[in-house]
């Protein structure tokens, strides 16, 4: 979208020349915003809002601490066994490539760096310059193998994995993009805000495509809370709360449901920014104008839950069931509210209906198991919780609740094992959260301890 295109395209060659010539980028001003993403298949040229500060940051990453990182990765430096002629040839090619790059002759530089890495395949900086230049020229498919070389030589640096993931996203290799972006996030990328925004936004979009709406929403909400106000972020919010596995770029101006998606997204964007008065007003208008639209009432119900308005939330979830009779999550939300309010028997019917509708939904068996546990029906609780564990073996809360059910049944060894599994998985989740990756769930049990935001 035009409103997100960078104005830095002019003078690109001069700017890159300055970056690579000095290796110090104090004059590079960070851009703001989110890049416009592509759609399935071949993607048109995207936004460059973070490209230049990103390259600057990553050049610093590799040219200041690269040798230290290599010492950490390898037990000892090995002597260069390359023949003298080969080394001299590499030095000459590298010098020519650097000169071409600094002069803004980027295509010439790319070809010279290709020859340089052929002469010396273990040159991190030559591979790095080749990869970043290919990325800058929108030659993403060619940049992928170059960035892979860098990640192989710098396995403890997060930024190369992020760049690799961004390139893979551009060529619609979404599974690998998700894995590499997540790995880069876990390794850490320093304090570069532009790279962080790009990484988290693309992670969110990939999770959105995979149907992990709640985790995607966590990422988008964090960006909104950081006062990022962009149209594609608002559209992304709308897709998450309405549970539509699409990319924001697919919601074109003439897309039939664009208005509803945007309004739902704007409401959630306001909520994430803690503008609860505006958020409530926007959500009220959404369900007033789109009362029968699939997902609208569910989104409204979840918002009302976040504001501790159980009565309004239940009413919205029931309307969603009327609009979408097979909506299992709306039933589970109602069931959980009743259980939380010590009305487990009232929630039993809704939880059982959800499981009957979607037998392979782990959350359904978990909620049904908890309700049976609260009702004192321990045998039924264990049965449902064991199904939930089989369907979601890495979910900490399932192991925690199952340990309680085993303990009540006198099955001490199994209770101890379940507690150990919970402690291990919960530690993994906490470590990931400390690095910015907070796994979401349709029912946020942690939110029970928090107070709703005051309208403002």
Explained architecture:
- The protein has 22 helices and no strands.
- The radius of gyration is 26 Å and the shape is globular.
- It starts with 11 loop residues before the first helix and ends in a 22-residue tail after the last helix.
- It has 456 residues and is mostly helical.
Describe the structure concisely.
This protein is an all-alpha fold.
Please work out how many helical segments DSSP would assign: 22
What is the rounded Rg?
26 Å
Largest sheet: none
State the order of secondary-structure elements, H for helix, E for strand.
HHHHHHHHHHHHHHHHHHHHHH
Percent of residues in beta strands: under 5%
Q: What is the number of strand segments?
A: 0
Q: Poorly predicted ranges (pLDDT <50, ≥5 residues)?
A: 1-77
